[in-house]
């Protein structure tokens, strides 16, 4: 661990953000409310968005963990990039609730909600790439990395970042597509390793963080 | 401790979820409100649900702690199971507030609220069993465990998971039963040990985590 | 430190509870609202309650820290007492907002709000005494403590716990008294040491935690 | 690290406070709402305030981290100063939402909102100076510091604290100035080092925390 407090603070922000998502799940129990079962059916975008965003932030945590485990030390610029990452992550409860609220209405509002959601995911992906870039280019890693290996890692991370805006843009045609694509992306990044393996790596251990 | 950050993140999520429960305790002080004493009596399901859910999450923390203390290392699949556990735990503030809001009304809404509450508890129980399964079957424990011992532990955990949906189903006949059963379950799991004892175990230490 | 995760979880809950207090500071900016300056003056009980409760929880953290630093190990019963303590602490944002909302109205509502606030403080004080009792009576401390020293510590802690309900009862005559008394108690416990000093203690170090 | 739990608790409070800021980003999706795009444009002060306050708290964390890393030990007075710092930091979500809500209206409300925002920043700056003062004057640092070096550090920190109220006062003439000045201050403190360098310092490492 390069810097216990950087990780502790990031863990705290990610833990609060992932738990705040639940505040959007609210049913109406005031006089004249629809039946609970009917409300649950009616609010499906809120539950779908909750599920997708929960795993998005969960996977961000898993990968943040894996990336920072590679660092031997942390500098101020990396701290700033980490703040940028957290900034985008903390917008996820907001863009998720906006998506949940406007998705069913369709029209330009649903498209704008999809763009907003894609923006927070894209910003998050870019910040992740900046962190990797800083680690690789400023020699903050625990072990030397060849230029070819570094380029390969940056390319793969960078390409990954492009999938988020692409998913949002395709969502302009059919908004629910974005939710589905983001869910698949979360599943992909759950399985996918960080491109640079730790020094003490050997087969099975590569999966261990 | 197998992985400090896995535990730190889980602690964070559990701490936020257990504290967010209090957001459902709100009294009305706007003009024309009922007296405070009357409101307190009127909101008893909110206070009962708060108490039960607080100890549910508290006991989840105690057992999460005990289970992870057995792990020598953590793999990606276990991280995913842990996320599943946290997903169900973070729904508890929502299913608790739903139960509190709809329990008194009775009828199909109270029954649906009970089912919803039972669902989050059942999902949590299943995720716990998955974590234990992974630890036992993939050799992630700190000490070797015989097949017989592993089967016994999985059976006991698995049976425990069945009590949650059973409590919810019985609650369909009389909704408050679910709250009472969940309170008793929390009390039971507070006393009950993790089935597999740590390697450095000896009498008194078994109680120590 | 007896158990890193017990302290991490408690720190998390205390940090969330102390920060949630701010959610009660809300001004009205909808059409036809009173001027900001007027609202600030009008909401003084909210600000006073915020300040007092912030330091209450802050001091609870300082003393929780000092108490747990004495423990060599932690058992399940102590974990349960710790959960009890956290239960009462997490009610503080609720009892604080209730006090803030009903204090100005006076009458029986103000008195009930004072009793409710006193209840969460008394419960917290009792839970603290239980933790100290468990540490002392079950030999969980880092160094042996004489029976006389243990009795003195328990007596002082126990007496402290009585001051909370007393402050609430006097508040029935003049509700703002409770806020003032609680503020003074927080100030007292900020200065006051834990009755049992750590083993490595020497003059100056006694103040250090 | 002088005291793991002081930092863990502070990290928790800062993480919750920085994440709670997002609760102010809410759009209206009830019947008859304005279009999402229009609402986003209409709420620009909320987004600008979110951004500025996020980096304010982020930079507070970075500097809190750097300052506490200098401490060899922590005493009760320093804990109290730290609580004071956290008190002011936890008011930032409130003063930020107040600024966001009243900035556009202009008039005395916008000026009062600017003063309130400036107050929480000034209080935070003063608390930071108190922590530095305590560390320097009571010999809590990891290495001896000459009187000249200590005075220089205190002077620079103290002058920094004056910029916050100055920014708020100038904001009385044109309220948005305060937001801009606070953003510039956050950027400045992101780059600026803590005045006293750690003992193990050497060129590049000075940037590392």
Question: Can you offer a commentary on this structure?
Answer:
The structure is a homotetramer of 209-residue chains. The first copy, chain A, is mainly alpha-helical. Chain A has one domain. Helices cover 73% and strands 0% of the residues of chain A. The first copy, chain A, has eight helices and no strands. In chain A, α1 (4-20) runs antiparallel to α3 (44-68) and α5 (107-137) runs antiparallel to α6 (147-171). Chain A is elongated and about 65 Å long. Chain A starts with a helix and ends with a helix. Mean pLDDT of chain A is 82; it is low at 199-209. Chains in contact: A-B, A-C, A-D, B-C, B-D, C-D. Chain A binds chain B through residues 1, 7-8, 11-12, 14-16, 18-23, 25-27, 29, 35-37, 40, 51, 54-55, 58, 61-62, 65, 190-191, 207-209, and chain B through 3-6, 8-9, 11-13, 15-17, 20, 23, 73-76, 79-80, 83, 86-87, 90-91, 93-94, 97-98, 101-102, 105, 108-109, 112-113, 116.
Order of helices and strands of chain A: HHHHHHHH
Oligomer: homotetramer
Helix fraction of chain A, binned, reads: over 70%
Structural class by helix and strand composition of chain A: mainly alpha
* Greatest chain-chain contact: A-B, 34 and 37 residues
| CA radius of gyration of chain A | 19 Å
Shape of chain A: elongated
Give the number of helices of chain A.
8
Main beta-sheet annotation of chain A: none
For the record, the count of structural domains of chain A works out to 1
Low-confidence sequence ranges of chain A? 199-209
Distance between the amino and carboxyl termini of chain A: 11 Å
DSSP E strands of chain A, number: 0
Average pLDDT of chain A works out at 82
Binned strand content of chain A: under 5%
């Amino acid at each position: 661990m390069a810097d216990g407090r950087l990780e502790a603070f990031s863990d705290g922000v990610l833990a609060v953000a992932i738990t705040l998502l639940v505040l959007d799940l609210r049913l109406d129990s005031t006089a004249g409310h629809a039946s609970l079962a009917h409300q649950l059916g009616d609010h499906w975008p809120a539950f779908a968005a909750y599920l997708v965003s929960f795993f998005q932030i969960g996977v961000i945590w898993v990968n943040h963990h894996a990336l920072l485990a590679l660092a031997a030390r942390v500098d101020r610029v990396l701290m700033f990039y980490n703040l940028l990452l957290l900034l985008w992550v903390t917008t996820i409860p907001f863009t998720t609730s906006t998506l949940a609220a406007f998705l069913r209405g369709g029209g330009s509002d649903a498209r704008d909600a999809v763009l907003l959601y894609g923006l927070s995911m894209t910003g998050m992906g870019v910040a992740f790439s900046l962190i990797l870039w800083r680690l690789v280019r400023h020699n903050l890693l625990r072990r030397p990395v060849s230029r070819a290996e570094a380029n390969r890692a940056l390319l793969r991370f960078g390409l990954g970042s492009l999938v988020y805006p692409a998913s949002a843009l395709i969502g302009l045609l059919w908004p629910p597509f974005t939710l589905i694509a983001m869910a698949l992306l979360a599943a992909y990044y759950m399985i996918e390793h960080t491109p640079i393996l730790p020094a003490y790596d050997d087969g099975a251990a590569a999966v261990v963080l």
